[in-house]
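User: Hi! I'm working on a homework problem where we have to compare a predicted structure to a textbook description. Could you give me the structure for the chain below?
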Amino acid sequence: MKRTYTFTLAFFALLALVLVACNVGNVLNTGAKPAVQSSHSALPTVPPAEHNPPQPTVAPSTGAQGVVSGSSPATFQNELVDLYRKVSPGVVAIRVFLKRGGVQGSGFVFDKKGHIVTNYHVVADVTPSTKIEVDFISGLKAWARVVGTDLDSDLAVLQVEDVPASKLHPLPLADSEKVQVGQIAVALGNPFGLKGTMTVGIVSALGRTMPSEHHAKSGGYFTLGDMIQTDAPINPGNSGGPLLNLKGEVIGVNRAIRTTNVNPLGEPTNSGIGFAIPSNIVKRVVPALISRGHYDYPYLGIVSVGDLTLEDVENWDLPQDTGAYIVTVVPGSPADKAGLHGAIPYDEYDSKAEIPAGGDLIVAVDGYPVREFNDLIHYLFTYTGPGDTVTITVIRDGKKKDLKLTLGKRPH
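Assistant: Happy to help. Predicted structure tokens:
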């Protein structure tokens, strides 16, 4: 089941209704089913320092050979060996038995009640009669059922049957707000069906966005934001497995790779650019999936330019430090009710048409600086929920203007 999305460097993202178009490269979900292609050109976004405070040093950065600076190769090796021994009992391989063939993915133990976190796309085609097998590193195997799914974050929760709490080893979740670029990242999972595989790299970037698994009524996909980029090798089958720091804490859930590389069987392979759903989104979404089966995301109702070029800035007479430019506003949406202005009326919007001047430029939300669309996504996903009232600061006609906006729920 191959789904192809296209995209452009200056992608138009609806903050709830993402409309994307163009062709720079492929982002592939890492479940070992036929390649699922996502669309987004990876654009650097590091949240401003005041909302990304420095954390105590977890480990020095790696050198060219992957050895921690200031420590011996043997010390670093022993640290990784100990880490694997500690966390591998909490990492699982997942097999989904479908009529068209099996799907393989990864996951990890969330709690002593047997809840397992994985990606939605690993279990996307499951029906009530579908069998799901969960394999532990100890050799224990158990059947599982789907408890809840979230297409927006690409997360799902399973629950294993007949497994005593003594054999369940939950993995702790880190505070992903404290993750730093350059920090060592360790991926565990089931690439190409090879259970218990461990790979090591670094956190390459923060705050990436890409389309989620959630279709929008107007076409395109809702945005999945605040992703962690890593060069720790992940491949098909790693989907849903943990990305960890050297303390053994989960900093993210491995979701996708961006690649044009394929092996002799035609399967996508790692190119050094992988993406993981941050642990702070897991902290918010997973308990909701367990308790009520779904999670509600904040909704603005705008189409925005993701990353402005200098030519865009000059054409639209915008300040050079930029922000998130509003292309159009969805009628009746929270953005519409708050009085935000788009450059194009919603019913005249065409993603391929030339964009005129005249839209609001969002430069802050609740005082949090918005340098590009990714910053807006980061703030809303991390600090807000439906029903919250936020202050949106825009530049309109060369002047700053504050608008109060009550967030809605993303349409289901």
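For your comparison, note the following. The chain has five helices and 23 strands. The mean pLDDT is 80. Good luck with the assignment!
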